[in-house]
Amino acid sequence: MTKLIVTTDSSIAGAIQRAGLADIVIAIEQRLVWGQLPSDAELDAFFRPRTTQLHGLHWLDDTPPWRLDEWSVEGRGLIDLVSECGSAELWIGQEPNAQLLLLWLLNHCSSEDAAVSKLVMRQLDGAVGAVDPEQFAALTPPITRPTQDHLELAGRVWRAYRAPMPQAWFDLLKTNLSLFPQLERSIVDLLEELPGITTGLGATEMRILELIATGDAQPFDVFPGHQKRNERRVFCYWEVGTLLDGLARCPAPAISGLEEGPFSLEMHDDAIRHARYKQSRLSLTELGRAVLAGEEDFLCHNPIHRWWGGTLLTNERQWRWDCEGRSLVAPA
Question: Which of 11, 180, 264, 270 is most buried as measured by Cβ atoms within 10 A of its Cβ?
């Protein structure tokens, strides 16, 4: 019988494929922690058979077309494919974006018993990304079969993230979340990316300032990654590059010395510009030092227009996170 594995990382999907652990391996890398979420109609259509969905808004878009042809699954809907397979496993990482994808997927499947009955979840630990492909055959992440309680909780959490205010997301911390072992950490990680109550910056931005303050920092020294000093795992490479731009290229910068930008594909494709970017020597401005010390609010000097889940953050609508008090602060 055909075995399907769905995961949230293309490199892990490739390793699973090479290890021969499944007949079909699909990676879904849709980013949910950055930018405006797709519309309700786009979210509803994402896992359905392909009709008019734009590229990037269908669950098979992150899998090479030649693979889809090989498996005869091009344009298929998730529920139909899962129902036809002998088994379907969800290999899900710890990072918040992966957890959100799991919730979205379960919410989509929740009304189809034939699909849910085929699903099992395997939660991956943080070390999986560093495992050699040859070792994947020996991996046996624990299996969890989704119950009705899983589906109901997944739906509640997914709705909370999409809400136009983060209050429902914060209120989840009062709920028993043990059905999803990584979920509470992801909820807190995302709350920590709201503007800080004192500094106006999220946790990843503050970590960037901390690393630059140690001296002799170049841009990629402050990016997260395997065995790197920035241990934050909420945002990906391109998103962190945009955050660094936002700290350096604004009316009142917190960082000086960034020689190139913006952090775009065009810059990466230009070898001279990319080299100049990598060789930049970063330092904190007077404002950056004051923000890091908790003496200045970055948003008192600079604009913000950023999506956090379904919430649009602006200078007039600043939801904030009090890390010490572990509390959400509504706009004044």
Answer: 180
Q: ω into residue 262 within 30 of 0, thus cis?
A: yes
Are 173 and 189 within 8 A, CB to CB? no
Q: How many structural domains comprise the chain?
A: 2
Tell me the residue range of the domain where 108 lies.
3-162
**Residues across the chain:** 332
Which two tokens mark 263?
A: 């952090």
Last residue of a domain, one of 143, 162, 181: 162
* φ and ψ at residue 134, rounded to 5 degrees: -65, -25
> Exposed e or buried b for every residue in 173-190, given b needs 16+ CB within 10 A?
eeeebebbebbeebbbbb
Q: What is the CATH number of the domain that holds 48?
A: 3.40.50
242-290: pLDDT as tens digits = 999 999 999 999 999 999 999 999 999 999 999 999 999 999 999 999 9
> How wide is the angle at C-alpha 12 spanned by C-alphas 6 and 14, nearest 5°?
90
Q: What share of the chain is helix, strand, coil (3-state, %, to 5)?
A: 40, 15, 45
39 vs 167: CA distance, rounded Å: 20
For CA atoms 91, 13, 62, 75, the dihedral sign is: negative
Q: Do 204 and 235 form a contact (C-beta atoms < 8 A)? A: yes
**pLDDT reported for residue 195:** 98
